[in-house]
Amino acid sequence: MNKRIIYVTSTVAVVILVAILVVMLKPGAKNDPSPSAQQFSGTVVCVPKKTTNPATTECLYGLHTADDKDYLIHAAKFPEGTVITNYDTGSQVVVIGTVSTSNAEQEMYDIAGVISATEVRRQ
Q1: For position 31, what pLDDT does the model report?
Q2: What are phi and psi for residue 42, nearest 5 degrees?
C-alpha cells in the first residue's frame, strides 16, 4: 500500500513539473520580454552632472544626440575593440543597444537614460 502511494505521488509530481516546464518554455510566453535594441547617432561627450559642485576631471563617456539628449554608455557588455573610451570626445559615432531610463546614474547626471551598448562604430 505504501509503495502505491509513493508511486502515485511521484507520478503526479512529475506530471505537474512537466506541465510547468511546458508553460514556461512555450515560445512567446516570456514573463519579462527584453527591450528591443535601438540605434543612436551622435557625439561622444562627458555626460553632464546635475549638481552645481565644481567640475572634476572625471569623465563618464556618453552620447549626445541630435535631439539634445545625453545618454550614459555602459561598457560592460561591449565586444572587445568597441568600447566607447576608444573614441575621443567630439567623435561622431553610432551606438546600438537597449536603453534603461530607471537607474541610479540619473540622480547624479543629467541624462535621458543609460544605453547598454552591443556595438559602437564611427559614423
Answers
A1: 44
A2: 170, -160
Q: Which domain holds residue 72?
A: 38-122
* Rounded Cα gap, residues 112 and 123, in angstroms: 21
Residue 10 lies in a domain: no
Nearest Cα neighbor of 110 from 54, 56, 69 is: 69
CATH number for the domain spanning 43: value is 2.40.50
Q: Which three cell numbers stand for residue 102?
A: 530607471
State the total domains in the chain: 1
CB 70 within 8 A of CB 47: yes
Q: Are 60 and 114 in contact (CB under 8 A)?
A: no
Average predicted confidence (pLDDT) for the chain: 78
Query: Checking DSSP bridges between strand 38-46 and strand 70-74, what pairing results, if any?
Result: unpaired
User: What percent of the chain is modeled with pLDDT above 70?
Assistant: 73
